[in-house]
User: What shape does this take?
Amino acid sequence: MLDYAEPVTRLIDEFKRLPGIGHKSAQRLAFHLLKSSQEDAERLADAIREVKARIIFCSTCNNLTDVDPCRFCANPARDRSIICVVEEPYNLVAIEKTREYHGAYHVLHGALSPIRGIGPEDLRIRNLLERLRPGPDGESEIREIILATNPNTEGEATANYLGRLLKPLGVRVTRIAMGLPVGSDLEYADEVTMHKALLNRHEM
Amino acid sequence: MQLLRLEAYRFRNLSGEIEFAPGLNILYGPNAQGKSNWLEAVYLLATTKSFRTSHPRETLLYGEQDALLRGAVIEGNLTRELQLLLAETAKQTFVNGKREAVTRYLGVLDAVAFTAEELEVVRGGPEARRRFLDRGLVATMPAYLGTLAEYNRILKQKNRLLRDAADAADPNRFIPQIESWNDQLVRLGAEIHSARTGYVDRLRQALTPQLFGVETVDIRYRSALEHRGDLSDYAALFTERLALRLRNEIASGYSLVGPHRDDLEILGDGREIARFGSSGQQRSALLLLDLAQINVYNQAFSEYPVFLIDDIDAELDRTRIETLLNHLEGKTQTIVSTSKRALAERYGARAALRPIAGGRVVASATLELRDKAIDDEKNRGKNDDKNDDKNKDEIGAVGETGETDAVRAEAAESGDEEARHRAPF
Assistant: This one.
């Protein structure tokens, strides 16, 4: 027996498929929609439809975009000789928020994890290598690759993998630093972060 | 630090609470009444881990969804309340009634346990000895837990990769990937190696090798890489060995190089105790290691962890017990369990006695009465001289029900011989 009329149950079931949504949240969302106006509901439906219809991956950097190349790759003001490699599009957004980085990006869409069956062939590495290919003058225009994968074991392994792959090509490869979050207090650092920060201390 | 009180709810067969005194506490009573369960509960409250099982579900009272342990700990003048909620698959930790991350919970109370299970350290394979070292390290250096967990996570990923490679038509294709996991393995492996060798040095200095007389106990960390090169630059040697054995690792589908293959050598008079030691020597050696661990802890924090000794008379002879308890006097809060009333009586003057029956602390009179009943039963068994086994079973079942206790208590008050024998055996 269904708890609610079929269309409601179906909506709840669909919400439950989303990450982080359990039965109660799904129910709450469904009833919120039932109570909201026709336009509000249509707007949400349109947004979902449109995102699937119009969002593609940039053919250069794999970022989510509605135009190809994406606005980062197409922007002539950005320094195309530096590429910052991240795991997911939202990691790119986090870096972009600093307004400090003016180079190009490359999104891998994942990190190595043998346990989850993710190998290099499942990451978007091939078109990164294509970007490094020397131009007509025999020189690659890329000077540096910044590996900004996550500071966990999978992200670290992915960075190591890319480092081993890219260094022989003669390009400078760097890894973002890890340590204490700036602007917070030492007391908020967990033991592992603190431990790493102590290991990576530097001369004043 | 000292455990003042422990309450247990839905945990194994325990009920009620125990008040603990500073110094020596003796839990005594017949077998299968819950003495060891109380010790296990203390250890769990301190470490969130059981010394008996890695499945929290096994510690729940049959049919229950969760169990709760709550204890009060005093350190200096500060009293703190610890609470551990054990569900079938998860654990929740609370300090002073507020939910806290395990990392903040651990360290409020620390415990070292000498149990039959722990004898694996001196008897079993290297894994038990690595665990012994890691346990001691985590207590003195909490960040080590993170290093260890990360190393194990990487090992798991790498093992999976090695298995995939072993099964693949073209294993070479996996080599760059394996190497990228090896990079982290080396960094963390070197941290583990240096932490463990440092800890073994401290343990060795804290060891009183001849406390129990005859044999001299010594320890040494044995890296699986020794005699393979220069251990003083562990990271370099580790890297070299990984490269050298890459093919073997792929062929076997397992990680063959790293600190997860190391061992702690425990020597009695220069001979490896796990292989050549007598059962008594092994027990003494383990006890010395536990005491050394307690000393190292004390050097680091100027505090003593709680020392738990399960079934003390089964594990140690009378002179060793005497030596041990004298050695501990004025140092640790020590909680021991025993089924021998004689032992409890011998130390009664310098210890807090906690008679245990049916999973809770009972008035000692109740227990004495039960002991008397058991003696009577034994005598009757001797007179009969047959059905010996049957008698044993019956003795084991004595005192399982509260009713029995009540009947006996009544008998004690009225001095009624008859009533005592009416108790349902």
